[in-house]
Amino acid sequence: MQEQIAIVASEQGGAATCSSSPTAEQVAEGQALFNTQGADLTQAPNRVTATVLTRENDFDAIGGEWDELVSSSCQQGVFFLRWHWNRVWWRMYAPQGSELFLIACRDRSGQLVGLAPLYRHNRSLKGLVKVQEICFIGTGTELKTSEHLDIIARSGYQHHVGQVVAACIQQQPGWQRVWLWGIHASSPVLPHFTKALGDTATTSSCDRLPYVATRTDWATVKLGFGSNLRTNIDRYIRRIQKDYKCEFYRVRTMEQLDEFMDAFVQLHQERWQSKGELGSFAYPNFKEFMQETVRDSFRCGRARLWMLFLDGQCVAALQAFVDRGVAHYFQGGFKSGYEKHHLGSVMLAFALQDCVQADDVDEFDYMGGGSTYKDHWTKTSHESIELEVLRTGFRPKLYAAVRYIEPGVASIYRRVIPQIVREKIRKSLGAV
User: Fold this and answer.
1) Which tops the pLDDT comparison, 8 or 418?
2) Is the whole-model pTM more than 0.90?
3) How many C-beta atoms surround the C-beta of residue 126 within 10 A?
4) Which of 53, 218, 247, 413 could form a disulfide with 102 if both were Cys (CB 3.0 to 4.6 A apart)?
5) Taking the chain, what is the end-to-end CA distance rounded to the nearest angstrom?
6) Residue 416 pLDDT > 60
7) What is the DSSP string of 292-324?
């Protein structure tokens, strides 16, 4: 039996208040929820109720409304807020023992006007203290997949959605920590959500998202490059075109998509394994995750897939998700042996040029993570924010204390304990 509560906010009232709990049938049908405590909210045009959804069939049932809400929202970089991306992630990467915590916000007519794509799970800090944490779907695991995250709100409802989601979380028992990572700094909901949480919430910068504005021409785009790249990129392109029969194209058919996916996986793994790294496709289920999300986004017109052939052989493949004018460069793969031709730079330049020429791309997003190569391509970036709330009590305080001292302890541990001994300790702990 799922736990559901409803929170009500209106323009006439200040703080959010509780209303009656809805039935599963009301949630499925999107009916309006009315306050049973006698308050007259019929004159409040922006009255909003919030309901917690915890069952997977609720996740499935809300898919159409979810995507319509995303399309009508004010958020930037919305691809990673789409229903399908989050649904596939949840199916493949939900931590063991975790529980959905989707907060659906509706107006008086039952229309979905806000959504917080969250879940609850137990987070352990170095095995010393465990807290129940509320976080975004797409985060909370070792594998980083999602960025530009947010509480989604229909235009005009940002204040009300931020208010009722905060009240809904505050009234839920059991959790010790709220950790929302990767919120775009320009989020239209974050200021209202943070204000409603009060002094318990802290925010800080957590990542930098470099990007290139592509609603211009190639000469203007190059002005934003670092001096060395700006001077040499066209020469790199001319050289590779002189030395090889060079064919670059964007994938446009399902047949080409199948060819792309095979080359993409192989080239990505080859690139990272040549550097002594495992590569993303070594992670469990990652190949299946990417195949499903790329195919769906391609069918919906939300994918850019590029391939480069030299003398008939595919040597590079880049993949981006595209939504509302933003191309999110997600991953790439490059064949070894072309270092003197600067294959990676040439391929990225070709993809950028394609975005400059496209009518539906205004921005090429390099996404976060701090890779230094991105600084050669642009000087402009967005900021990403993380928000944290720690509840009062012994366990949250212990969590905060362990987290505070852990970096220093880890540093001393690395300095004092020889690496060979650390390896034996790690193996022994892994066997427990």
Assistant:
1) 418
2) no
3) 10
4) 53
5) 35
6) no
7) HHHHHHHHTT-EEEEEEEETTEEEEEEEEEEET
Q: Which residues pair with 308 in a beta bridge?
A: 248, 316
6-207 falls under which CATH superfamily? Gcn5-related N-acetyltransferase (GNAT) (3.40.630.30)
- Ordered by start, the domain boundaries in the chain are 6-207, 215-361, 392-431
Name the CATH superfamily housing domain 215-361: Gcn5-related N-acetyltransferase (GNAT) (3.40.630.30)
Helix (H) / strand (E) element for 364: namely: strand 363-365
Mean residue pLDDT of the chain comes to 86
Query: What is the C-alpha separation between 218 and 214, in angstroms, rounded?
Result: 8
Q: How confident is the model at residue 127 (pLDDT cuts 50, 70, 90)?
A: low
Q: Say how many C-beta atoms besides its own lie within 10 A of residue 372's C-beta.
A: 6
Tokens of residue 47, six digits? 């009255």
Question: What is the number of alpha carbons within 13 Å of residue 281 lying toward its C-beta?
Answer: 20
pLDDT in tens, 283-292: 999 999 999 9
- Residues 298/257, Cβ–Cβ less than 8 Å: yes
Residue with tokens 């049908």: 29
Coil, helix or strand at residue 132: strand
pLDDT digits (tens, 9 = 90+) for 331-340: 999 999 999 9
Residue 395: per-residue pLDDT? 80
pLDDT band at residue 251 using 50, 70 and 90 as cut-offs: very high
**Backbone torsions φ then ψ of 289, nearest 5 degrees:** -60, -45
Contact 148, 211 (CB under 8 A): no
Helix (H, G, I), strand (E, B) or coil at 23: coil
